[in-house]
Design a protein that fits this description.
two-stranded antiparallel ribbon; 10 strands; 10% strand
């Protein structure tokens, strides 16, 4: 059977035709082998046609387009047909299996894996530790790298572990935590407070050292508490619902979740082009993108805390971001600014290829089937 039935640009649109054409490249190796008379496999000349009955052909197409063999119902539908009908191919193209196959194809094509970056600097990592004597033990969370600036003594540095005390915090008339100082070590410790509804677990509560639980958006010196300039400001903490800080416990690794969300954000653009049967070039030119709860939270509250990465400005202004809680991983469509261009300005692409030369070379290799030669 000819493959011409599958490539139908005039009916399915340029985008779908290109993607189907890409999928059909997977069929070529299978056509190089045929079953010999003795039951063994024999190599065939690449130019020599290979004969397949309609069932074998449909199985091959189904595997390539959906990653699955046809169901008994799909095979039974071929009874009475001389050949595989276009409607049977359309059914494969319209299913989620085709989207998943093409998503995997583009993930490999664009090397979409940026989950190993440090999206929040170490000083804003919450560390969990036990404090207090054995008969009054408490597990508290605190920012270990910043603790030296409001609990430390002379000679201490950011590598020292200086948590708060094991008692509930008290506050002075100005709302500052009251401290108890140790004459021997020179360190001063405040107590802990319960924080209800931290952003990563809105139905839970966590004990946090009072200095670190400070919910202020700005420090007393005017410093924005969600930026790197607040590193040594003792009146800045993790902010309301601990929104500025990283939490790597209880199966919730905030930075890993953000990285995986950036990976999937690129794939959501691929899915959008395919599901809407758009021209393939939309993948490279559209301003449409997608965000989920972790990305909305990151854009709003943590983007300025990235380590050795300049991710600003966010692709969508805060005013236009949907209200999605961090624990909602469903993706919602948004419109980026006019400077954006499809997957080529997604964070997954820009972070994976961090030089202009690397980005251009990947574009040439992935979409033009050639290598970028800067000398030409």
């Amino acid at each position: 059977m000819s493959h011409r039935r599958v490539v139908r640009a005039e009916r399915t649109g340029v985008g779908m035709a290109v993607c189907v054409g890409l999928a059909l490249t997977f069929l070529a190796p299978a056509a190089l082998w045929a079953q010999g008379a003795s039951g063994g496999s024999v190599a065939m000349d690449r130019a020599e046609p290979v004969s397949m009955d309609k069932y074998a052909y449909f199985k091959r197409v189904s595997l390539d387009l959906t990653g699955e063999v046809p169901s008994w119902e799909q095979l039974a539908a071929l009874e009475g047909q001389d050949d595989v009908a276009e409607a049977s191919i359309d059914e494969l193209l319209a299913g989620d299996g085709f989207l998943e196959v093409m998503e995997d194809y583009h993930r490999d094509l664009l090397w979409a894996n940026v989950s190993n970056f440090q999206y929040i600097q170490f000083p804003w990592d919450l560390t969990r530790t036990a404090v207090g004597p054995n008969d009054d033990r408490h597990t508290v969370a605190y920012m270990r790298r910043r603790a030296v600036y409001y609990r430390g003594a002379e000679g201490d540095d950011e590598n020292d572990s200086i948590p708060c005390g094991h008692w509930p915090a008290t506050f002075d008339e100005n709302g500052r935590p009251e401290v108890q100082c140790d004459d021997e070590t020179g360190r001063c410790h405040e107590g802990w407070v319960w924080v209800d509804g931290p952003y990563w677990a809105p139905n839970d509560s966590v004990k946090v050292c009072a200095f670190d639980a400070n919910a202020s958006e700005f420090g007393e010196n005017g410093t924005f508490c969600g930026g790197t300039g607040s590193r040594r400001e003792p009146t800045c903490g993790c902010g309301e619902d601990l929104r500025f800080c990283d939490w790597p416990y209880d199966g919730t690794n905030v930075q890993a979740i953000v990285g995986l969300s950036f990976n999937q954000q690129l794939m959501e653009i691929v899915r959008w082009v395919l599901k809407n049967d758009l021209p393939y070039h939309e993948l490279l030119t559209t301003r449409i993108s997608f965000v989920n709860g972790p990305l909305v939270h990151y854009y709003k509250y943590q983007m300025q805390l990235a380590s050795q990465l300049d991710l600003q400005p966010a692709p969508v202004e805060t005013l236009f971001l949907p209200e999605i809680p961090f624990d909602d991983d469903r993706f919602v469509q948004v419109l980026r600014g006019p400077e954006h261009s499809g997957v080529l300005t997604s964070y997954a692409f820009l972070l994976r290829f961090q030089t202009n030369r690397g980005r251009v070379n990947r574009f040439y290799d992935a979409f033009l089937d050639s290598f970028f030669d800067a000398g030409k």
